Amino acid sequence: MAEHPYAEFLGRVEKPGRYLGGEEQQIRKSGAGLACRFVLAFPDLYEIGMSHLGTRILYDLVNKHDDLVCERAFSPWTDMEAELRARGLPLVSLETATPLREFDVVGFSLQYELSYTNVLLNLELGGIPLRSDARGDADPIVLAGGPTATHPEPLAAFVDLFLVGEAEEVLPDLLRTIGRMRSEGRSRREILAAAARTPGIYAPTFYAVERDERSELLVVTGPTEEGRALGVPARVGRVYVRDLDRFPFPTRFPIPYAEAIFDRASVEITRGCTEGCRFCQAGIIYRPVRERDPKQIVKAVLDGVEAAGFSETSLTALSTADVSCIDPLIKELVPELKRRKIKLGIASLRAYGLNEGLLDEIKSVGISGLTFAPEAGTQRMRDVINKNVSDDDILTSARRIFERGYDRIKMYFIMGLPTETEEDVVGIAETGRKVREVARELKLQRMPTVTVSVSQHVPKPHTPFQWAAMDGLSDLSQKVNLLRDLARRYRLELKTHSQTESWLECLFARGDRDMGEVLGHAYAAGARFDGWRERFSMARWTAAIAAVGVEPERYTRTIAVDARLPWDHIDIGLEPGFLAEEYRKALRGRASPPCGKPFGAKVHPTSREAAEADARRLVCYDCGIACDMSEMRGERMVALDRLAGMKVERHDRERDDEVEREHERAIAADLVPIERLRGRLNPSKLAADSAFKAAAEAPFTRVRVFFAKTGPMRFMGHLDLTRVLPRMLRRAGVETAFSRGFNPVPRMSFGPALALGVGAREEVVDLDVLLPRSDADMAGLWSDDDRLREALQLRERFVAAAPPGIDILDVRVLLQGERRLGELVVAADYAVDLGPELAAEVAAELPARLGGPLQVERAGKAKAGRGLRRAVGEPTAVDISAALLHAEVEVDAGLLRFRVRLSSEGPGARPREVVQALVGAVISDHKLVRERLLARSGDDLVSLRALGPTFAPKKPRTEREPDEAHELAGTLG
Fold first, then answer.
1. What are the start and end residues of every segment in region (Disordered) (predicted)?
2. 398, 478, 486, 832: which has the fewest C-beta neighbours closer than 10 Å?
């Protein structure tokens, strides 16, 4: 870690794991032979970007080409930004710690308008001029894609190229073109011109703008004279993948060190949506609906969780319930996940189509709550927005959910929709009340939680509501207050989104190049992470708007349908007039049927027989996207056939598994016969065997694992380790025992925790694991040779599965009754790298320092007692002399070595305190390493790793009897 440019101060920032890199399954390539070096600089925190499926898709897409590389960077939080600015250091990539300015292409995934200031943050900290026209030939090309690239004008001054649509078929060749031209020494202008002729690429520099009289917004009028001469298109057409199966979903991707928002192996199962909700931009810009081969989905899910070691996975789609084979797919997948003890999450369910069988399957893999989106509280409003859901659908699904023991329902709603009345707002709370009443009628033992989550409608480009006005802030606040009153009355959990953030989102969603100037002013004034409530400042944005002289009402008011719009030059592929007709139907309260389904149907047939019997034609909006309905029907038949074939294979596997389980049960039935346990277990205790077999916890074996903690792992805290190690065990094929209780967790016991940045040469953790049981080990009769052989096998498996920075040193299978770590560890040896010069100074002063008291000051915590209260941060003098057992300096090696007592007797000493007291200066924690943990052996202290089996004193038999049978059957003795 000394080589990492941030090593000196990583321990001073929140969550250092955001900036380290070096994760499991990351890809590093040398620069030799690469056509283009690309960095994906996601404009948000590591935890957000690493949860985004697009990051995984792009990382895999680019890196699977030998001549291309994709590295990652994420926006630094304010503490890291301050550290970088104070030291003049650049933002670097995670894989190779390369500054962003040294890449050929810097890419941004634009998911949300309020992340635009972070685009500028990443550019500036990466050493790249903010504005496109200020960049020279040596600067990287700045490329942006994602859903908001379909309305790109607010970022036109800062981004060189926008990729409109899906990247799979375009991005690799585009990167090669840019890389080749840069290596040839071609000018920046030539490179941008070549890229602008690529399908789906918009280069703002080659397009002219003017103010439209009707909308008063700046609109793109077409290519400039230079652009026409270069052959750039008048309108930029969206690109999309026709066949998703040509690009299988990635199953190997970097595993986050810092905990991601969605810490699981998610798999995209489809793109596009059949419903046509009029507020939904994604439902338009991801047309047509394309579904992945169900066999590929099952493989991606299982391979993903096994490669990563996650305990949870999820299926993602814009509308999971509308996937044509979702029922048989889940029924095929769930048994495989149950065998692996993996939880399954399902995103974007609808309030219909949740049949009993599907709900049972979901419940069986650990899901205790479900979320769906009625979107509006009255049927009139749902017809306006074209939400194909009725009150009966909502209440029927709620009843089925509650009957199956789910204890939480969350429902998403939108307020501020076109034509909305107060009755429609009240209907949101009324829908929640009716759902709660369903639970009350069932007379459940525990009342489920009903959560109503309400956001504001933001009219988005390329939707039927792109011309509609957004509610004013005062109107939205009144509606929120009304909902809060009703939620209290109806005992509902209410969550609302910030009205001011939504208002700003609207300004950028319908924004033009004037909003780009506002963006620059706000960023210069300190705007960052505007999607994070604690960072958003309305005053900062209103000041920037006033400085530029923009009238916000231009972007929030109703726009004439025949006015030109700032995003008209982006061609999504829709038939002219389609969106306007859907807008007019919305204002008349008329719904349109879901496309791609049999006419009049809400859900797809769930078997081939039902699909063949359904002769109804598939609905087509004729929106302009070329969908072949006959081909779509045929593909769904093929998918159902493949799932049927997989079902037969699964039944064969389950039959073989049942035979194996019958054999195990036969062994377990004769677990501990009296004649084999003579002298170890009283006959009166044999009844405990049946109780044990029925217990919630399986029989476990305790193993003690010694490991070194190096490299990036030095900056992983204790909570990070509790996530990383269970993943390692799952990859190794070793199952952990779990605690009892409402929220079971893997049973692990660590040695004393280390400060962030401190390395370790000999750490330890005790793990309770479930090993394949034989009749011998179930009876506690393993020999020493058996135990040694098992330990060696476990070590080999752990070494193969260990993440970077965890080096497995040794594994011991513990004997029954051995002391736990907390009873053994009494001291620790440390070393700190001072360098030869400082080491010589410390060596000269060390005898004098050790001859007197070693006092350090600690900041006190707020404590109250006996009428006294000490303020937070009040310094307290503490003498740590008694805790320091030994210290010496190795001048030639430049090391200070010392031993610290860790027992609870007397005041302890933190390693950094000892170093400060002995050295007289603060030394960065990353220069510290814990060399070993020590235990007492007679009168001596020895390395815990060198200590043999140590047992606690035996309790009187009367105290041991109730638990002895369980211990003999459930641990390795």
1. 950-973
2. 478
Nearest to 180 by CA among 169, 165, 195: 195
Q: Which span out of 306-320, 344-358, 578-592, 892-906 was modeled with the highest average pLDDT? A: 578-592
Domain boundary pick from 219, 237, 255: 237
**Cis link prior to 335 (omega < 30° from 0)?**
no
Tell me, what's the pLDDT at 609? Answer: 65
Residue 751 lies in domain: 683-817
Q: How many CB atoms lie within 10 A of CB 398?
A: 27
**Model confidence at 839: pLDDT above 50:** yes
What whole-number distance in Å separates Cα of residue 236 and Cα of residue 198?
10
Strand ranges in 712-774 using DSSP code E only, listed in sequence order: 735-736, 748-750, 759-770
Cα separation of 141 and 101, whole Å?
A: 10
| Closest C-alpha among 291, 328, 275 to residue 609 | 328
The gap between the terminal CA atoms of the chain, to the nearest Å, is 42
Structure tokens at 907: 């005041």
What number is the average pLDDT over the span 636-657? 61
Which 3-state string (H, E, C) describes 506-567?
Answer: HHHHCCCHHHHHHHHHHHHCCCCCCCCCCCCCHHHHHHHHHHHCCCCHHHHCCCCCCCCCCC
Mean per-residue pLDDT, 898-912? 79
Using the 3D structure, point to which of 183, 212, 237 is the last residue of a domain: 237
Confidence class for position 281, pLDDT limits 50, 70, 90: very high
CA distances from residue 10 to 91, 287, 384, 757, 921 in whole angstroms, order as listed: 13, 44, 52, 7, 18
Three-state DSSP state, 429: helix
Count of domains for the chain: 3
The CA radius of gyration of the chain, in Å to the nearest whole number, is 32
> What pLDDT, on the 0 to 100 scale, is given for residue 97?
95
CA 927 to each of CA 324, 367, 690, 880, 912: distance values in angstroms, whole numbers, following the listed order: 57, 44, 54, 21, 10
Q: According to the model, what pLDDT value does residue 737 have? A: 83
Is residue 600 in some structural domain?
no
Same domain for 811 and 838, yes or no, is no
- Distance set, CA 841 to CA 280, 573, 750, 848, 897 (Å): 68, 74, 36, 12, 15
Same domain, 53 and 154: yes
Those residues whose C-beta lies under 8 Å from the C-beta of residue 614, and which sit 6 or more positions away, are 598, 601, 605
pLDDT in tens, 113-148: 999 999 999 999 999 999 999 999 999 999 999 999
3-state secondary structure of 187: coil
- Are residues 805 and 726 part of one domain? yes
Question: How many whole angstroms separate alpha carbon 403 and alpha carbon 360?
Answer: 10
Q: Could you tell me whether strands 369-375 and 343-346 are parallel, antiparallel, or unpaired per DSSP bridges?
A: unpaired
Task: Report CA 723 to chain centroid distance, whole Å.
Answer: 13
How far is it, in rounded angstroms, from Cα 134 to Cα 130?
A: 7
User: Do 831 and 783 lie in a common domain?
Assistant: no
- Tell me, yes or no, whether 789 and 885 share the same domain: no
Which domain CATH number covers 735? Answer: 3.30.70.580
Cβ count near 802 (within 10 Å): 20
Confidence of residue 362 (pLDDT cuts 50, 70, 90): confident
Convert the pLDDT of each residue in 363-389 to its tens digit. 877 777 888 889 999 999 999 999 988
Contact between 838 and 901 (Cβ < 8 Å): no
- pLDDT for the residue 938: 86
Contact 117, 518 (CB under 8 A): no
Q: Are 72 and 214 contained in the same domain?
A: yes
The answer to whether 402 and 435 are in contact (CB under 8 A) is no
Q: Cα–Cα distance between 237 and 235 in angstroms, integer?
A: 6
pLDDT > 90 fraction of the chain, expressed in percent and rounded: 58
The answer as to whether 2 is a domain residue is no
Same domain, 164 and 149: yes
- The answer as to whether 844 is a domain residue is yes
Tokens of 815: 């004997």
Give CA–CA dist 256/102, Å, rounded: 25
Q: Is residue 505 part of a domain?
A: no
Q: Within 13 A of 10's CA, how many CA atoms are on the CB side?
A: 28
